[in-house]
Structure prediction request, 206 residues.
Amino acid sequence: MNYLKAISQMLKIIVLAVISLLSTCSENSPLVAEQPTLTDYTVGEKWTWKYKGVTNEGVVRSDGQDIREIVSVNDVLGMVIGKDTISVTDIVEPEKSETPKYKWPLKVGETWRYEKNWTSQDGTTGKQSQDAEVISFKEETVEAGTFMAYTIEYKGTVSNSRGYNARTDEVWLYAPAIKNFIKMTQTQDDFLYNEELINYSNPNNK
Prediction:
């Protein structure tokens, strides 16, 4: 009888140990975020950020708001950005670059190289080259509220055809639930730029 009692107690200990182990694994396992798809977006969905760029001397170079909204044009979803409307299909199209802005699926510990070539309206060409790493996934609070978000660090340089070359480090907080970043901080030599989500609305959440 004592033998059966001892076996029963051992089994209880083993079961509790397994449950504890599974719970720990679940807590430590990072969420993997897939790239948003067309069906994830809703007409009327809207994001508003405030932004400000200041030099070390306190000179304000930019200060304002950035608003983006999902609309339907001839039954095709589009995202209004300023005076432009971009097809959501193009936004969710998987990036074919080997050096993308986001390396999907996102997960803590992932690293990659981000490179982008660009041409400004006056014909100046440039290149941004950075090493990226997903640092964490946790609750982050901004003016628009509290969201589970990935912290992604980008460290590297930016240069252009006019001879400009600067160190540029960025921190992006990306929230999968709203398919967008909620905060971005960029340091570029003597210039600091911040962008923060101040409002997010989705008709489906009412």
